[in-house]
Target: dolichyl-phosphate-mannose--protein mannosyltransferase
Amino acid sequence: MAVVSVWEVPPKVSAARLMGNNNTGNICIWPSEEVFAHLLLTRHAGLLARNSFRAIELGAGMTGLAGVVVAAAAASDTAAVVVTDGNPTSVDLLAANLAANHGVSWDAAVDYSADVALCGGRFDLVFAADCLFFEAAHLGLIHDTNGESEEPTGPRHHFEVAPGQYQLEPVPLFADKSGIRKPHISTNPASAWAYLVVAAVASAVYCNSLWGELFFDDEYAIHRNADVVSPDPVPWSHYWRHDYWGMPMDDPRSHKSFRPLVVLTFRANFLISGTAEFGFHLGNVLFHALGSALVLPIAGTILDGYSHASLFAALLFATHPVHAEAVAGVVGRAEVMCFVFYAAAFLAGVRAARRYHTSLRWSMAVCAFAAAATLCKETGITVFGVLFFYEMLYVMNWLELPVQAKDEAAAAAAARNPARVGKINAVVAAATRFKLVSWQPDRFWPVFVRQVSYALFGLVFMWWRLSLNQGVLPTWPEKDNQAAVSDELLPKLLNFPYIYAYNTWLLIFPLHLCADYSFESIPMIESFADVRVALTWALAAVVLGGCLYACGLNVLRMSTSTRVHLPVLAAAAFAAVPFLPSTNLFFLIGFLVAERVLYIPSLGWCLLLGYLLKLALERSTGRSRQLVLGLALLLLVAYSGRTLARNADWASEEALWRSAEAVVPSNGKVNFNLGNVHFARGEYAQAVAYFNVSLIASPDDPSTLINIATCYAKMNAFDTAIEYYEAASKLATNLGQFFNWGAILEHRGQYEEAIKVFHMASEFSPHGGRLALYQDDPKMKALAAMHEGTLLCRVGRGRDGLDRFYYAVRVDPNLAEAWMRIGLEHSVNGELDKAVPALERSLALDPSLHYSADELAKIRTGERSAADTPRELPLSAQIAAAQDHVAARPNDPAAHLALASLYHATGEYRLALASTNHALDHAPESIDALAFATQLHLEAGETRAALDAANRAAALPGATPRLHMLHGLALVDSGDTLAGVAALERAVGGDSSLAEAHLVLGRVALASGDAHRAAGRLRKAYAARVRAAGGDKSAAAALPVLYELAEALLAAGKRTAARKALSRLVAADPDFAGAQVLLDSLQ
Model:
């Protein structure tokens, strides 16, 4: 037998106010009460057996039959049942009925406040047998039905309503109509099949990603990461001291991306299946399926357990195409794993927030899951921000707009200004009365304790995380994030909002997806006149207006509403809070747009669409309901199809960059990677074409210059290769670049130049250039010094060579070949006491060095010969050697052409031309000889002779872009402009880096009156000259082209661009003829 308490609850909007006195509860015992009493006894027998059982009946009427029956059936005398009604007559009649029943104690009260929590605010059972005819009469009780049993196990809360016209979700019904938001009441969890469906769909849409390759960032995170693929056991400390790529966190070159939990899963993949791609991709898909399944309870929490909407939101998340980068790209596992722990932390926070007292167990679970999420990716720490909004919206009910607020506000506005009782006054007045804080101490203090605990834990954890960075943040190339690196405020104000809008658009319409958005793929906004500014703020207005409407403010109608759409605000929190680390507001990040970082924020979009589906289903019936469900299904099918197609893009490196090329064809990184694809296939000409496009986007990128040089070296175009190596060396220090460059020079017999190159490599410092591409490798430096020493010995500078050998062994004491060369050099010089230890050391390090063994044997037997270390002639004697070679082989055109090249290098034009003509005498169809002859004649101003040689060469198969350029120059000089332009177009079509061709094409276009085309050509000519000068935009060879570019821009009516070009020119050379005068005329 339970104690029965009877309460009269004065409604905020009484039935009498609406239609007169409400006496429906005083007519009879309604059939629903009898049926419902039986239902409660059979369904909740376990609850009735509890000693601490607490229950409340809403709208009991004159008999309170269901509540009294429950009280009578309770097993313990300490149980309590609260019976309520809003009609005083019903309370009086109920008191009389209870008095007639002996053995049941009760007390009646008529002074009840909605802010007082009944029974401590905790109920095991909340039921309403027949109260929903006038649901407004129970608004005050909504705040007090969020109870939980203190039992550590079992169901926490039950809500029952008698069958009737309001059977479907009764509490949201009158809560929404009242304008007061109920505390969150948990509903029945999703069934097991729903979780299985979501997980199955999430796996199915990524099934075609399982056999994708490991490439791009996967190569560095897995194949080149010793923490992942080491055959030996990896020390546990490595995972907590190294970044995502296996580099120590205190290394200046580290990206500072600390994700040890993800690296551990990569290690597990490797231990299970090696480097097989399938295992790594399967791990990503399984994590995605788990995360998608966790969206179900999250959506149930936000959308009040509405099954269709929750399932729809979870399926949207499972199939959203923007997730492809994170799921199909193995490195994206950081995003997926982060979300799994992120979702677990949020759900734990929901459990903690259900109690009126602080739940230490669930609060600790929140912190643990949040820490795990952050150890997968730094975004995980933002879950505390999402939980803050959740508790403020759903637990504290901080957004309340009581019904009478609107009426009182309107009355106040009319009293102040009777002539203007308009919508604006009503909105302003209502806003002043907008109730943000409902002081409920029983709820405030537990929430306050939880939030302070979360904040303190988050601050301490982030302090520890940032301490791993050693106070250093990663640096990024300017081209990766142009807006963020700008020192000016205006570019940020113009571009940051647009970037946020662009990300939002990717969530809404994920059709044109791309692996990279750097290198000005998204053009910078430079002024407010750009139409994208208006579009951005239009979208911002829609978002802000939607949030205000969700708060109960209708901006369009300038009015207020009593309904608050909390799921909209919760969806906004899920979308915005996890995106904060990617906004560039707190620290610089290495990208403008990256689809992978939208993985967690996309949940906000999915929840919003789920809520819209819920609203649509509530307002539709019959065919309209079928139409709504059909549209939802169509969206899921469209998302799934786009995801499957996007997975195919991530199947291989070429497919990925081909798809990116279709979206951003001028992107430097995209073209660079496509060039690498062709290079790997041995398609060097195609590779050069893509690398040249990349150079247009980033003229000062040393990696691209090195790759172009390597391609030309592979095609035996050594002159061009050397030009690019020289240009790259002025921008960056790269050991691989020096070795290739030096090897070419050595192969061509240009020993002095090769010595200089190897010397630069031996003195390599990773921080010495504008951009260090490779880490400091002592072994490579020692090898470079050894090569330098060898060449010095060949040109007769043995002592200098010996010094470099000693330098090599100081850098790498275990370089056996360097010790061998030290011993040989000392032996040749008769310094046997120094030769023997060096030779013995070399043999100890490498017994296979037979030169050391032979020389040591000769020394010990008293024999030694300098012939064993042959030397080559100094470079100054090469012409004499070439002349001897020509005399020995007078019919060899290559010998004559080699001699011509040497004469040209010394400025002996006539001798060079004579040797070239001798080569042509023996090989009249030699394209190389004809091209060289054309160049010599053009340099000497002999247009007719140059044209004759060029015409002969152009008629032969296999003409090169350089030959087309020479032919075009000769044609233009001879007056045949049309033919010359055609030849020059063919030249730049094959090699866009030919500056002279662009320059002449620009001059011809300007002379013909096409100033716009001229400006484009001259801009390319200037970029090519800058590249040739090693990226120096103030190089003397580039400044005249810059002046011509300014003239073309001025002719095209682009005064601002012309002024910028002239300003750059004057800054580089204040005395440049005519530049300052022209600039002054434009001011």
